[in-house]
Amino acid sequence: MAVSFTLSPAQQQLVHVARAFADEQLRPLADAVRAEPDPLRRALLARPAFEKAVASGFLKGLIPVPFGGAAGGGVDAAILIEEWAAQSPDFVISMAGPLIALAPVYEVGTPDQIRRFVAPFLADSGAPVAAMAFSEPDGSANFDAPPPAEGTRTVAVPDGDHWVVNGRKQWASHLPGWDGDGPDLMTIVCRTPGGVSLVVAEREHLAGHIEVEQYLDLPGLAGCMTARVRLHDVRVPRANLLGAEGQGPSLTRNAFFASGASIGTFATAAMRQAFDVAHRFATTQRRGGTEPIIAHQAVSDVLADAKGRIEAVRLLSWRALDAVLSQDPAGPELALHAKVFGSETAVDVINDLVKIVGVTAYDKQFPLVRHLNEALAYPVIEGSNAGVRRRQLQTMLAAPGYDPLAAAGMG
Ligand SMILES: Cc1cc2nc3c(=O)[nH]c(=O)nc-3n(C[C@H](O)[C@H](O)[C@H](O)COP(=O)(O)OP(=O)(O)OC[C@H]3O[C@@H](n4cnc5c(N)ncnc54)[C@H](O)[C@@H]3O)c2cc1C
Q1: Any atom of ligand 1 within 6 Å of the Cβ of 134
Q2: 387 in ligand 1 pocket by Cβ < 6 Å?
Q3: How far apart are CA 209 and CA 327, in angstroms?
Q4: Which fold has domain 9-117?
Q5: CATH entry, 128-244, from 3.40.190.10, 2.40.110.10, 3.90.79.10, 3.40.1370.10
Q6: What residues have CB less than 8 Å from 331, skipping those under 6 apart?
């Protein structure tokens, strides 16, 4: 099949529609989020835009077609994420909960589980939220480590027809839901007698059994609803176990591939915004000299290098998202490169752009360091590069028969 990098008319239209939504809804939301000091009130500001996005069909657009949704291919997803994340990456992370929380349902869910768990996210109104409750307050990089390591500390104990879940979770968007009674759906990584497993709690199981210990105050992505919660005696039907007991580690890793690939696109969005600001500054500001500072080659070189790296990360992320969503065997490796290379490139690029703008950048009102704060999140979220993602790459590279050309489809 021939490969073209030219956007189709439908994709160009998607750019237009996504950008219009971002300009109308997400730019003002981001301004309001910056002005609100309280983390919970900040997160709640997103609700009206969230409802508009649901009513416009964007949430359904996250659900694959075979499960009743309207998701397009990976390039379409990347276009939407980049346009929205350019204005409010926090908002996209909040909405994207089902992308991760439902991934194991698509992979191993029974027809009954698929029907029950996907249904809330096919809605045309409201603001349904989902959380992938993997991370714990005392660390998750070694979540699959066997005893005597702590590994996953949240436990689900069988009790008749139910699992009884107890433990603490942190970081996942919307762990508390909009009102502190939990999200519509929470996929919980926990320890059962058969090993690390996934069970799904619905809102009716969580209400009254979830205590918010603290809403977290993030330096970037500040509109995310991020908290530490305690689950106490959450009673979940035995039928809500996904796959088999002990299947949790592979289901969890697989669930984070699409979101990992998307981090490259989040990184692209942050770099693109920062580049615009720095380029405008360099082409208009003389700083007391005779010419705009882009006439100094040291400044121009930074801009040129930044632009090249932005284009490289964008294309890698398109390819990675496309491969993951189309079940291409190259998907996992490409997703890891998009996550690791994309996130670390964004930190370097935006840091370099701050240096050429100079001291003007070091003012909260100047719209540049805010993007560095966003970028600093990307190496550590969705499985930190050091603790999770590079270790996954190590496993791939060390596997017997690893083919370096396979990711390019040229093996
Ligand atoms: C906005 C936001 C959204 C998030 N969304 C979610 C979500 O939806 N769901 C969710 O579950 N989590 C979420 N997280 C948390 C995120 O996925 C983290 O990446 C995850 O908790 C793992 O963190 P960590 O790798 O730093 O692990 P930790 O266990 O905290 O490890 C800390 C550090 O120790 C080192 N380390 C530990 N063990 C090893 C090892 N074996 N080898 C090498 N180094 C090691 C690494 O340097 C690692 O970074 C979110 C976080 C944020 C800020």
Answers
A1: yes
A2: yes
A3: 37
A4: Butyryl-Coa Dehydrogenase, subunit A; domain 1 (1.10.540)
A5: 2.40.110.10
A6: 257, 261, 320, 323, 324, 325
| Ligand 1 in reach of 374 Cβ (< 6 A) | no
**Distance from the CA of 197 to the center of ligand 1, in angstroms?**
19
Q: By C-alpha distance, which of 327, 221, 205 is closest to 266?
A: 221
Q: How far is the CA of 208 from the centre of ligand 1 (A)?
A: 28
- Over its length of 411 residues, how does the chain's per-residue pLDDT go in tens digits? 456 889 999 999 999 999 999 999 999 999 999 999 999 999 999 999 999 999 999 999 999 999 999 998 999 999 999 999 999 999 999 999 999 999 999 999 999 999 999 999 999 999 999 999 999 999 999 999 998 999 999 999 999 999 999 999 999 999 999 999 999 999 999 999 999 999 999 999 999 999 999 999 999 999 999 999 999 999 999 999 999 999 999 999 999 999 999 999 999 999 999 999 999 999 999 999 999 999 999 999 999 999 999 999 999 999 999 999 999 999 999 999 999 999 999 999 999 999 999 999 999 999 999 999 999 999 999 999 999 999 999 999 999 999 999 999 999
Determine if ligand 1 sits within 6 Å of the CB of residue 139: yes
CATH fold label, 249-408:
Butyryl-CoA Dehydrogenase, subunit A; domain 3 (1.20.140)
Range list for CATH 1.10.540.10 in the chain: 9-117
CA distance 407 to 411: 8
Asked if residue 346 has its Cβ within 6 Å of ligand 1, the reply is no
- Rounded to the nearest angstrom, the distance between the alpha carbon of 383 and the centre of ligand 1 is 5
Tokens of 179: 């009102």
